[in-house]
């Protein structure tokens, strides 16, 4: 059977992801879809030519309509607007909920077996929206943010230490907002616990930088938000699902009792495979982390309440 990855929204994140997947040679086909027909055609040509340069066997196509965007194993949705300096991700809520709903309504019927990876922001609320729009099983719809936030934490640890590049395991859970929950005690440097190599103040500084890592890039870019690290992080999820490799990554999923929460989406470690979310891993959190996770969940809940009142009602 052919492995086919669909990407809908081929702007900064979507195009970078397509380039990354095509040059890695991990799927037979990538199909791109965007409102901007000329851009998507140009990206399909350019990325297909890159794949040929890389001697990759991946074919890159674009879809003129929803019917052609079909039979995908994995679909990544980045359609939506990014924030600009001075905005929070939450400011994108109603605009992107409208886009997410119309995208899901358009494409789900042509993709009965797909696993959906949501990237559009505000991430957790968009996973909730996608699930609600499509009425799919919760294991089939998940969001990318935790791998990115963990990579940022790892970057800031490396920056602080001045060494250990490639040897840092960092772990972040919770919603993809300013109150995400970086987990210092589940983070290591060359196998050593983080608190053995950095003191409390240094760890707090890294946690603060991680929480504001997205905004830092938005402020510098001026026109939009980060895309290389988001795209690479998404490619790891696509690869885990296509290869059924059962890797554990932090992803945004609908909680149904895990960590004591119901009917709310947040980032938690999950095992990924061909069925999407195959297991939610319940880490043991200390009192402070439990309180921080509760605060992060409350922020997502506030967005979901706004959606229920102003969008779904
Ligand atoms: N979850 C995460 O960690 C991250 C999330 N994001 C989010 O991802 C989204 C995309 O970001 P960028 O790629 O930088 O934005 P972008 O503006 O470069 O690309 C968005 C693309 O979506 C397309 N689009 C809009 N409505 C559409 C529709 N109905 N159907 C098909 N295509 C449609 C636009 O034409 C555009 O090409 C934003 O909401 C951003 O906040 C970005 C980075 C990280
Ligand atoms: O900051 C943003 O708006 C985009 C994003 O989610 C990130 O880079 O973490």
TrEMBL record:
Which stretches make up the Lactate/malate dehydrogenase C-terminal domain?
148-309
**Pfam family, any one:** Ldh_1_N
Q: Which domain of life is it from?
A: Bacteria
Where is substrate annotated to bind?
Answer: 83, 89, 121, 152
The annotated active site, in chain numbering, is: 176
Under which EC number(s) is this enzyme classified?
A: 1.1.1.37
- Alphabetized UniProt keyword annotations: NAD, Oxidoreductase, Tricarboxylic acid cycle
Establish whether keyword Oxidoreductase is in the entry.
yes
Give the first-level EC class, as a single word. oxidoreductase
* Residues reported in the UniProt entry to bind NAD(+): 9-14, 34, 96, 119-121
Mind telling me which Gene3D superfamilies this protein's record contains? Lactate dehydrogenase/glycoside hydrolase, family 4, C-terminal (3.90.110.10), NAD(P)-binding Rossmann-like Domain (3.40.50.720)
Q: Does the keyword NAD apply?
A: yes
Q: Name one GO molecular function term.
A: L-lactate dehydrogenase (NAD+) activity
Segments forming domain Lactate/malate dehydrogenase N-terminal: 4-143
Q: Which family does it belong to?
A: Belongs to the LDH/MDH superfamily. MDH type 3 family.
Q: Which NCBIfam families match?
A: PRK06223.1 (NF004863)
Function, as annotated, reads:
Catalyzes the reversible oxidation of malate to oxaloacetate.
Protein name (Swiss-Prot/TrEMBL): Malate dehydrogenase
């Amino acid at each position: 059977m052919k492995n086919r990855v669909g990407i809908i929204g081929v702007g900064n994140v979507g195009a970078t992801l397509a380039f990354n997947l095509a040059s890695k040679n991990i799927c037979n086909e990538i199909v791109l879809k965007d409102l901007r027909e000329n851009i998507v055609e140009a990206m399909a040509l350019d990325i297909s030519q890159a794949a040929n340069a890389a001697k990759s066997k991946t074919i890159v196509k674009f879809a003129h309509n929803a019917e052609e965007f079909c039979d995908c194993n994995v679909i990544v949705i980045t359609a939506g607007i990014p924030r600009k300096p001075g905005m929070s991700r939450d400011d994108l809520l109603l605009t992107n909920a409208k886009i997410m709903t119309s995208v899901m309504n358009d494409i789900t019927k042509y993709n009965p077996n797909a696993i959906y990876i949501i990237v559009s922001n505000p991430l957790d609320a968009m996973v909730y929206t996608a699930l609600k729009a499509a009425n799919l099983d919760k294991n089939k719809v998940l969001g990318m943010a935790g791998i990115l936030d963990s990579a940022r934490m790892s970057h800031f640890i490396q920056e602080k230490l001045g060494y250990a590049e490639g040897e840092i395991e960092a772990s972040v859970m919770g919603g993809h907002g300013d109150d995400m929950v970086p987990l210092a005690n589940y983070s290591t440097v060359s196998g050593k616990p983080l608190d053995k190599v950095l003191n409390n103040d240094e760890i707090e500084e890294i946690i603060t930088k991680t929480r504001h890592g997205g905004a830092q890039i938005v402020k510098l870019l001026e026109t939009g938000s980060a895309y290389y690290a988001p795209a690479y992080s998404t490619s790891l999820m696509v690869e885990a699902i296509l290869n059924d490799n059962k890797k554990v990554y932090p992803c945004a999923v609908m909680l149904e009792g895990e960590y004591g929460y119901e009917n709310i989406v947040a980032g938690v470690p999950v095992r990924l495979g061909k069925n999407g979310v195959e297991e939610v891993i319940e880490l043991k959190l200390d009192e402070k982390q439990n309180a921080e996770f509760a605060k992060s969940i409350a922020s997502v809940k506030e967005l979901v309440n706004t959606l229920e009142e102003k969008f779904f009602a």
